[in-house]
Amino acid sequence: MKAAALCANRSCSMLRYCPGGMCMFSAFFRDLRTEFAGYNADKLLKDVMAGLTVCAVALPLALAFGVSSGASAAAGLVTAILAGIVIAILGGASYQVSGPTGAMSAVLIGIVAQYGLQGVFFACFAAGVLLLAAGLLKLGRLIGFIPMPVIMGFTSGIAIIIALGQVDNFFGTVSEGSSNLEKLASYARLGFHPNLQTVLIGALVVAVMLVWPKKWGAKVPGSLIGIIAATALAAALGLDELAVVGDIPRTLLLSDRLHLGSLSLDMLSDLISPVVTIAALGMIESLLCGASAARMKSESFHADQEFIAQGVGNILLPFFGGVPATAAIARTSVAIKSGQQTRLTSVFHSVFLLASMFLLGGVMARLPLSALAGVLMVTAWRMNDWAGIRYIFAHRFKSAISQFLVTMLATVVFDLTVAIILGVIYSAILYVARSSRIHVAFSTIDGNRLRYDVGKSPILDSAGVVYVTGSLFFGAVDEFNHRLQDIPEEDHLILSLRGMPSVDVSGAQAVLELCQRLRAPRTTPSPSAAWPRTSAPTSTARASPPSSARAPTTTAPTAPSSPCSTRSCSRHKKEPPSLDSGPSGWDIGKLPWTILPPLSTFRNRSFCRTPPHAVEACRGVHFRQNRQNRKFTN
User: Fold this and answer.
1) What is the mean pLDDT of residues 385-389?
2) Are 602 and 460 in contact (CB under 8 A)?
3) CA–CA separation, 355 and 58 (whole Å)
4) 503-532, pLDDT tens digit by residue?
5) Considering only 121-135, 248-262, 397-411, which range has the smallest mean pLDDT?
6) DSSP label at residue 51
7) How many beta carbons lie within 10 A of that of residue 107, not counting itself?
8) Residues 621/575, Cβ–Cβ less than 8 Å
9) What is the layout of strands, in order, in the sheet containing 621-625?
10) Phi and psi at residue 463, in whole multiples of 5°?
11) Distance of CA 577 to the CA centre of its chain
12) 183 neighbors 177 (Cβ within 8 angstroms)
């Protein structure tokens, strides 16, 4: 087939998502061939039946999300139909079913209140462009940097926004304000007077959805049964005070749609925050849905290809009068459980929705808004990741709980873009604070183990090892210096940094300053760093007296050029090299994992083992470890 050879030019590097160099479009057609290999009538029938089941789930949700977004029920239907075809065909997996979602409707209601439907259509178009660019630039991995508690709090905040947005429709009340908090505050001024007929219909739908058995819900969703029962009850009792959906136009090209003449840079500058919010929400929901469904079906999921599909779909939707769409986990999971075989399941679901639009438009026009509000109330409750919430609270994970609560409150109080940014920044601060905890442990070395030969005297009178565990970066430098002040006195000191997974420039400077401080003559008790002491401690005060006040000791050399007279340094008979005697500069990329005593003391001895290829550096002298025999050479 020639389809696989499309865009095989290596100059198309911007479009590749596979590390082997195959072009993104070529890999996409390869996946299509694999997906439809052996496709027959039996698989076609399974796709048709699964599409019919998904249509039953998607129909009430499409109507409800269309209304809750501030548009119309028809806009929700058009979005579900077109997104189910376009995004599914171009998608990064065979199982994704896209359409309007509750999270997206929570974003759109604020845009409609401030900018009208044209603002929603323009934001949808611009967000589609961002999604397309994100897919081409392979930015799918960036979503992995958002912590799971932040996503949980984000989702719970959206659920609260959806529920608050349906208070008027569910209770038949009236409120004022552009945000949910303003609407809640307006009840104190306008009063809260529920309509009993409206509450009865909404409560009936909620009750049916809660008691409907799950095994039946796999075939016929409780939301559809609840809406049918509520509509039939309203017609039987003649409840004329109920607000209804209204006329459903029998066309995919709605009168309220994006017009090219309305596009302007001024509108883009005003809508930049909503555009970023819609794009980010589309990325998050699509990736979460894809990752969850991939585990359910044990298939691969290509995030960058999915971003391209979401971008193309959202660019086209506003020209038909649709609202932003993204992958929906509810419809996707129903499709998989119903025997979905290929992406044609989503296409068939759209075909059935289109048929219902033309055949059942008159019936859907008489659906009570309170019935749709009941569907959204239950949907908002079920949106929460209750298993994850119970887990972090039951185990008292304080950082996860705080991330969850901060993000949830920020989602309700501010817009969703601020909530995500605030949640990620707060999580980063917690991570830095946790990582700044560094542990220092001291262990004395048995002198009998430090011998050249059996029966000879030990090389060192006394020696110790300081084990440093934890990342040494700018946030941990103060803790590192503080803990090293309490190290016991030893003639020689080995500073083991094997437990230090990473270090930055500030940490490297702290290690170098430690070497310089311990090498210099002092009167404050402190550990020696990789060398014998040049002066013995004479005072326990932290501040060092001037050089003229320091008393000479018998163990200190009288001049830098005189040989070392200490017993531990008797084998090399010379002063350890100074910091200025080695290379002119330090290579921070080769910071030592272990800082050793003078290497001549331990030449060809491997009692102190370090990781392979570790570069030992201290006092201006670099040492390396021999790979073959793990012995130290200079």
Assistant:
1) 90
2) no
3) 13
4) 888 888 888 888 777 776 644 433 333 334
5) 248-262
6) H
7) 25
8) no
9) 615-618, 621-625, 632-633
10) -150, 155
11) 49
12) yes
Q: For the residues 221-237, what does the mean pLDDT come to?
A: 89
Question: What angle separates helix 386-394 from helix 398-413, to the nearest 10 degrees?
Answer: 130
pLDDT in tens, 326-339: 998 888 988 888 88
Rg (CA), the chain: 35
CB 274 within 8 A of CB 65: no
Q: According to the model, what pLDDT value does residue 455 have?
A: 61
Task: For residue 67, give the amino acid letter.
Answer: V
Q: How far apart are CA 33 and CA 30, in angstroms?
A: 5
Q: Which two tokens stand for residue 337?
A: 């459980």
Residue-level pLDDT at 379: 87
C-alpha 418, offset from chain centre = 15
Q: Could you tell me the two tokens for 235? A: 């017609």
Q: How far apart are CA 331 and CA 96, in angstroms?
A: 8
- pTM for the predicted model, two decimal places: 0.67
Which pair of tokens denotes residue 345? 């399941």
Partners of 326 in the β-ladder: 99
Core vs surface per residue 15-28: b (16+ CB within 10 A) or e: bbbeeeebbbbbbb
Angle at 100 between CA 96 and CA 101, to 5 degrees: 85
Phi-psi region for residue 396, left (φ > 0), alpha (ψ -120 to 50) or beta?
left
Q: What is the pLDDT of residue 550?
A: 37
- What are 183's two structure tokens? 């609407």
Element (H, E) at 230: helix 222-237
Name the one residue in this structure whose structure tokens are 């029920």. 73
Average pLDDT, stretch 3-9?
40
The pLDDT tens digits of the residues spanning 237-288 come to 888 778 888 888 888 889 888 887 777 777 778 888 889 889 988 888 888 8
Query: Bridge-partner residues for 464, per DSSP?
Result: 444, 493
Strand duo 463-469 + 492-499: pairing:
parallel
> Mean pLDDT over residues 29-39, rounded?
87
Most distant CA pair in the chain, distance: 111
Distance CA 360, CA 353 (A): 10
Q: Are 285 and 137 in contact (CB under 8 A)?
A: no
Indicate the SS3 state at residue 470. coil
Asked if 348 and 170 touch (Cβ cutoff 8 Å), the reply is no
Look up residue 88 and give its two tokens. 């599914």
Q: Is 508 helix (H, G, I), strand (E, B) or coil?
A: helix
Rounded-to-integer distance, Cα 108 and Cα 583, Å:
63
3 state SS of 156: helix
